[in-house]
Specification:
Elements lengths: L4 H24 L8 H21 L2 H69 L1 H64 L1
Helix pairs in contact: 1-2, 2-3, 3-4
């Protein structure tokens, strides 16, 4: 054990003793989720104390540990921000999908109303002009079917767009989780180095 290891170990143990009640309080208050502002503040304060102690003791290893802790806190903060953005994007995509589905349903109902109305008109016309109305109704029916096909095609295209947006949001959320896991591994690696 060299002479620098003793003060470094003392700083590390002192910080662990000081952090234990703080970490417990953060967990009890429900703010201990990975990447929370409170946890990041505690981690950054820990890194600052280690850096100051490293400067005072002229211990480059202690300063490097502080730099790595600061960097891990930054990565966790970035991952948390990405998670929030991904969740917001998924929520917006879900809302758009709901709106589009509702609009498509309204168009479908409108098309069905138009179809019913056309049938009623055809029945009245049939009573008045049997032969001419049959041809006219066939033409109307084709037009309505074409509108329904167009409405259905629009609905399917909008749903496909909304699903694409949702998929992109889920990919972003997965990326945020991956970054969060990488930050956790970095933190674990630091702990294992001690």
């Amino acid at each position: 054990m060299d002479l620098q290891t003793i003060p470094r170990t003392a700083v590390d143990r002192w910080l662990r003793v000081v952090r234990t009640p703080v970490d417990t309080a953060v967990t009890v208050l429900g703010r201990g989720e990975e990447g929370s502002a409170t946890e990041l503040t505690v981690d950054r304060a820990d890194a600052t104390v280690r850096d100051l102690a490293g400067r005072f003791l002229r211990d480059p290893q202690l300063r490097e540990d502080a730099r790595l802790r600061r960097r891990a806190a930054d990565e966790r903060e970035h991952a948390a921000r990405l998670r929030e953005q991904a969740e917001a994007k998924v929520e917006r995509a879900d809302e758009r999908l709901d709106r589009r589905e509702q609009q498509a349903q309204e168009r479908k109902q409108q098309a069905e109303r138009e179809k019913r109305e056309a049938k009623e008109r055809a029945a009245r016309a049939e009573r008045q002009r049997k032969s001419a109305v049959a041809k006219q109704e066939a033409r109307r029916q084709e037009q309505l079917d074409a509108r329904q096909r167009e409405a259905r095609l629009e609905q399917l295209e909008e749903e496909a767009d909304a699903l694409q947006e949702r998929e992109e949001a889920l990919v972003a959320r997965d990326e945020a989780r991956r970054l969060d896991a990488a930050a956790g591994r970095a933190k674990a690696a630091r702990r294992n180095r001690r």
